[in-house]
Amino acid sequence: MKYDVLFSGFGGQGIILSAVVLGRAAAMYDGKYAVQSQSYGPEARGGASSSTVIISDDPIQYPKVLEPTVYVIMSEAGFQKFGAGAPKSALMLIDSGLVQSRPQCRCIEIPATMKAKEVLGKPIVANIVMLGALVSVTGIVGFEAMEKAVLDSVPKGTEELNIRALELGQDIAQKGGDA
After folding, report:
1. Residue 5 near residue 53 (C-beta atoms within 8 A)
2. 66 partner at 20 to 30 Å CA-CA among 2, 90, 128, 156?
3. At a CB cut-off of 8 Å and minimum separation 6, what does 145 contact?
4. pLDDT tens-place string over residues 121-141
5. Taken in order 117, 118, 121, 126, is the CA torsion positive or negative?
């Protein structure tokens, strides 16, 4: 098993944190190998950013993602810059409230930002909602491993909110996405 995952959105959405948490879940709590890298424009907040993670059952020979197999896209600019050329064999999860375009590959629409705001009152945890959906759809890491990695990674005092966000993403994905 090997997944090459690309996260993209705009600066301030927690795109890099998402990749770090996923890599941590795989390497520290799920017994897998993981490599994470990131890039973002000079704008930082608001500019298109991306982060990648390779997760494998076997040692990783090359640390760069050449062709993602899974995309998690949280902004239209992120889609245009990093997701528009996704191969038909890929899987893409998109934040359906922020991404207007649709890929040619399999696409699962997750209203992460909208649901984070409506259900949790905090749109800032939309990235964690997307991680819950990603784990639910792909099984890339176990849900318990992801919970532990989230708890290790979020600011003190926000643990309960972030676990609720993770569970919300899992629930949305299990109900078929754009619910």
Report:
1. yes
2. 128
3. 25, 26, 28, 29, 30
4. 999 999 999 999 999 999 999
5. negative
Q: Which DSSP helix (H) or strand (E) runs through 50?
A: strand 48-56
64-122 pLDDT tens trace: 888 999 999 999 999 999 999 999 999 999 999 999 999 999 999 999 999 999 999 99
Q: What are the tokens at 147? A: 């919970």
The model's pTM is 0.92
Are residues 122 and 116 in contact, defined by beta-carbon separation less than 8 angstroms?
yes
Are the beta carbons of 78 and 10 closer than 8 angstroms?
Answer: yes
Whether residue 110 contacts residue 179, with contact meaning beta carbons closer than 8 Å, is answered with no
Contact 105, 88 (CB under 8 A): yes
* Residue whose tokens read 């949305």: 172
Place of tokens 């899974």: 70
Distances, alpha carbon 99 to alpha carbons 11, 24, 38, 68, 140, in Å: 15, 27, 21, 19, 23
| Domains present along the chain, CATH in parentheses | 2-174 (3.40.920.10)
Q: How far is CA 138 from the centre of its chain?
A: 11
